[in-house]
Queue: 3 jobs
Job 1
Amino acid sequence: MSAIIKFDHVNKYYGKLHALKDINLEIEEGQVVTIIGSSGSGKSTLIRTINGLEPIQSGKLEVTGYDLADKKTDINKIRKNVGMVFQHFNLYQNKTVLENIMLAPRIVLHRDETENRQEAEKLLEMVGLSDKGDRYPKQLSGGQQQRVAIARSLAMKPKVILFDEPTSALDPEMIQDVLDVMKKVAESGITMLVVTHEMGFAREVSDRVIFFNQGEVLEDSNDPEAFFEHPKSERAQEFLSKIITL
């Protein structure tokens, strides 16, 4: 496998706050990587640098062959390849579910309209919402909206999909439906980076678990089961002891 994302001595600051401290990571194509850690540890900042939502101050960050630190890089070329699912859905409230999914492929990829609709309908079926295409986001539950957001991201056929705490804004009974869709996405072979507090998902689905603490990678394990059973660092042990793992 080849690395599709490379962090090389990446640093990120918010004023005097050193949010990402000398990050060195390589994410291989097809990997499902879960990033866990306490709130404010820098997890979301890390994945938001990958599609340029957060600029880095030093180091080198390559995504799908493009160098984000190079001012000549067209960020839109990266965003064609990198999908993102946010905590709060970010759907267009004035467009139907089907229109939300079809919009970016129409504008960015200039996809044929018939093909675009067919792809959108397939994705709605995949996320279990084939009967909701003509609804508007406000007519759906939070969990349903998040599944639409996943379908919308997949519609661009990205090489990488980023999930920024996709279940944290949902009612508990909605979470499992979203996690089940994410499992389907993982099975499709797409590269996934998932910031989450869902330890059961991290343990079951991940190829790799990264434990983040105070802007640093404290542990990076290619054996999620071993990490959850026997974390090496005291900080990871403390973190896992305070949460329920499945």
Job 2
Amino acid sequence: MSYPSLDTSRAAAAVAHVRNLARGQRIDPSWRVTVHFHPDRLVDDMTILRAMATDGRYRSQFETGTSNGGLSCHTGGDRWRWESRLFGGAYDDAPPAARPVYGSLNHRHRPAGGSPRFGSAHLRLNVATLARTTFCYPDSVFEPVEVGTADRCALADLADADDKEPLDDYVEAHVHGGVVLARDVEALVLDPCFRDTEVEADAHLLGVPVQWHHGFRARIDDIAAHPGYRGPDIVVAAALIAREGILDARIIGAAVREGLFDEQSLKRVWHCTARFGHPDIRP
């Protein structure tokens, strides 16, 4: 299998720029970067897992034009501008495939990964990728000044001391030089709602170990008890797509494919499910 030729000089320049601004100590080598996504979504009329298996790598939002966070991945857009500032202009004229892949530093060893707000599944990257990963806190949408690299990082302490709500308390990670499945991935970790489904079958096409976390299931009553979290309209959407009063990643994904609500609304339904859900809930 062949992979796109990536400009490693850009990656090296970006990491060096961040290292010059970073402070702190070397991170714990047991920490891992997790790259989150929804495993039942489509990319170019193909399931994302099949697309990954075909490509042999994970593609960034600059390539796919999709995102589970903000989407401004075009020249001059917010994401482009944030990257220009964070990485000293290393990617200003770079092709999409050369740009970094976003994830989070799972310094708390959470089974569902470092930032489940961005997806129920994640790729857990191996220790070798840490050397070419940069970090910031908080999320780059806030244009942070606190940055880090694997050998100079104080961001975990900052995140742990901050009083952010559970879906927003992650340390953002940027993997430079691409994420190639066979080279960089320890495991694909899925929500158990996808057991015995097409998602599980597709997962085994990636050629990496498939593991499961505790899962997120939420009662609509628990979501409705917090209308201010993502808005009353999101509670209404959640109630309409729930099955027997229950929501999980598989149910929300089916609603996305059926076009029952716009994807931004259903993204917020997922936020509610991840925030208020528990693995022991049953219909």
Job 3
Amino acid sequence: MNDMLEKLYAAKAAVRESDEAREPLAVLRERALSRMRERRNFREALAGARGPAIIAEIKRASPSVGIIVPKLDPSEIAREYEAAGADAISVLTESDHFLGDLAYVDIARAASTLPILRKDFLSSRYEVAQSAAYGADAVLAIVAGLSDERLAEMVDEARRYALGVLVEVHTEDELRRAVAAGARILGINNRNLHTFETDLAVTEELLPLVPSGTIVISESGVKSQDDVRRLVAQGARGVLVGESLMRSDDKHEAIRALKGATVTA
């Protein structure tokens, strides 16, 4: 199995099987519904952001670069991100290749008032309910790893708990499928998840095809104010930034710089 995306979903399937044996879907649904009063509106946070919307990611490692930070304190980072002016927080929970943990979601939530996106390779109703039960306000749905049926099931399950869904695409065909599924928040991933190659031009090429009224977030490869300016100029509402923020010694200054990106006439 050479395809990285296949490896990631295979690893996630094994984790899900273990999780389901420990906590059945019915148990998670009950807990997820009981937490609906805690829900923070992910879409409104992005739409109402001052300047470019910044989703700041808590991320310890990745298959492409290895370990980013040897020790991770999700609580401290969440507090830093909010104080620095981020609009939402993405928490990477995949454990095998990104060294994440589902527990990080509630830890970040307790340390911040921002909406929390669970970022992982999810593909089932079970994982959506699990996300809501463990404190997420939104989930990631990666079109490249999902059939149309699975995508529709995830969107439907998210509605039960008023969860936002960031529907991620990388190609024109995936964009078409996301729109057909009713995506209202679209993540355009500049990284090809099969090869892990990254190119900001992916967002620029797909943006003209996005229906009006859809919030677009550009993901991966965003490192500087110039990158944000470039993407916002083409119509992106904001960006999701992980590695460069995690490596930054001054997250306040890093987010201030991203937020300060403006489009000149």
